[in-house]
Amino acid sequence: MSETATSKLRKLAIVPAYNEGGMVGRVVRDICREAPDFDVLVVDDGSADGTAAEAEAEGATVIRHPFNLGIGGAVQSGYKYALRENYDVAVQVDGDGQHKPGYLPELLEALHTDGHAADMVCGSRFRGDPGYKVPLGRRLGNLIFSVVLTAITRQRITDPTSGFRMTNRRGIELFARDYPHDYPEVEAILMLNAHRLRLHEVPVRMNARGFGRSSIDYPRSAYYMAKVLLAIFVGLFRRRPTPEAGP
Amino acid sequence: MIILAAQEHNLSSASRIAALALTAVGFGVVLELVRRRRLVERYALLWMLVSIALLVLAVWNQLLNWLTNVSGFQVPANFLFAAAFGVVFFLLLHFSVAISRLSEETKMLAQDVARLDYELRKARNGTATANGVDPREPEAADEVAASEADSG
Question: What are phi and psi of A191, to 5 degrees?
């Protein structure tokens, strides 16, 4: 699709943020600078700090959860908003500054490239230089999911835990209706696969997380692995993990 | 029948009295919780059924012995333990299902509250469209909302 055609689309950046005061403002600013044709929605997932005010001060639209729902609930809120407000394209950009908004034009391009047009484009750290030193544990976990997902979807998926994703209207409709709870990225790929939506990966570099508050630390990583593998396994026995997109 | 019963293991009258007393206390606690509206009738009935089953087995020794024999246990106490474990297991599973449903409903409610909060702010400001917010205008309303959220 040409530059002029994509410029007519309504595009939304969904920024899930939980206590990202001091960081979220910079993320919003970067998006506005690097991809000015994207509206910015910050989903404040029950923050106790100035996340919402900071985002609003930078010109973002802010939706505030009354309490913390976790990343899945926050991202889904964003997709619900995108559906209601009739956006054609939505992209997830973490509020902790890990994802570089400079890649948004590239992701958008890949979403509409003729030939391998995709319904979702994932920014992958493992198709090139990740941009920072990914801890060994995360690499290993990622590799396991990667092998499993590649086998199930029959498509090479190198970074199934990446939350840096852009999707079109079909993806927005799907995720607004159903989105996994915690650690949703891997399951979301399976949902796409079950609904015959096409996925495409684009190599990106990421930043090490802005703060030490990684969503996955060591005590939780075992639960993370077990939970996602269970979800994958159970998902294999579901005809349709989610209802087909309705009216 | 009396001879048959005598040959088998019977709960001592002391343990029968203990079972009776425990059941009575359990009943009392459940009823009190319902009275204080801390427990809905639905779950109260569940616990009362469990209590009644325990009571019947404590009082009606022949039934306990018969069930023990039928299910192949040597000692009635073992049958009781196994049965109790099974009942508790199913109750917990039932609660896990209920909690899963509740957390899904809670998530949807929270998302809707967030949406309504956003739409209310937008309606009050008139201009709070995406990227078009003037943060100085809605500040008062926001602060009220924020303090409400904090105290809640």
Answer: -60, -45
